[in-house]
# Entry
Amino acid sequence: MYIIIIGGGRVGYYLGKALLDEGHEILIIEKNAAFCNIITEEMGSVCICGDGCEAATLEEVGTGRADMLVAVTGDDEDNLVACQVAKYKFKVPRTIARIRNPQNEHIFKTLGIDVTVSATNIILEVIEKEVPTHPLTHLLTLSDKDMEIVEVRIPPKAVTIGKSIKDLSIPAGSKLALIIPKDHNPHLPTPRTILREGDQIVVLTTPETEKNLRTALTGI
Amino acid sequence: MEFNKILVPITGTKVDEEAMRLACRLTKKEKGKIWSVYVVTIKRSLPLDAEIASDIQKAEEVLDHIEMIAEEEGCEIETDILQAREAGPSIIDEAVERGIDVILMGVSYKKRFGQFSLGDVAPYVLKNSVCPVILYHQ
# Structure
């Protein structure tokens, strides 16, 4: 597989090294000549000095025959442009962009970038999973449906403890799918189900209503 | 000074012939052998194994001529066409793979921005070679 990497910083360098070890043909495009020299000395002729956002540079390196383009520079804007030029001008089948600001994720998806990777989001998800007091954990994102499956844990002293589900203002786009109580006896929620401390509730929701859902179920 | 294994990269310039004659003189009689390679550089817009008929034909012609010179000098020679993105690294790889004793390169007189220039390949080979390198400048 021919993979083009835009950005020869630490992420691009280690990504390139790993892909080379897996036997892929790779090319790194890096603006900084000093970084280019380091990569060339260590990995051979797999790096060129240039701007990965420029169509002329991408044409020169044979983007038209690339199977994948991965933009991992430190600038979200550069990553977006590189991926878009690759996708729409050179018809690269798969584009992956690194995102620093998680708020840009939606824009990237809307503009047709296939996969986005946000370190901020990844760390946030790990924190949600590792810290038991965190009331909401993302389990799965259904990006094509713009929905997600989350788990909400009822914390001690939550104002909703002892209330039935019908008394809560669950947002319209959210569906409660499963309740796992402390005694590990899962059951399907009904309007009469009473919430108890430590209950884990699996919910299908949308990113927009996630905050309201957490407030409705935990009062936080 | 005589060597067992000499690698002579060929570029299709006038200096190739003299470089090959020098290589023959530096090869040990009976035991010595010369490897001569022509590197076809492939643009990144093409896959590395792309067959560029015109380049390969030129390489074959150049290597045939070099073989004739080696025969005239009475030397054992093996020729090969390499395909690579850049000539320098492929010459170094070839030297390492064949356990070459010395790389002998012919360099022609070139100017870049009004100054004498060795180009990109010769400096790369000088910097990265694991064996001695002889540059023959016509």
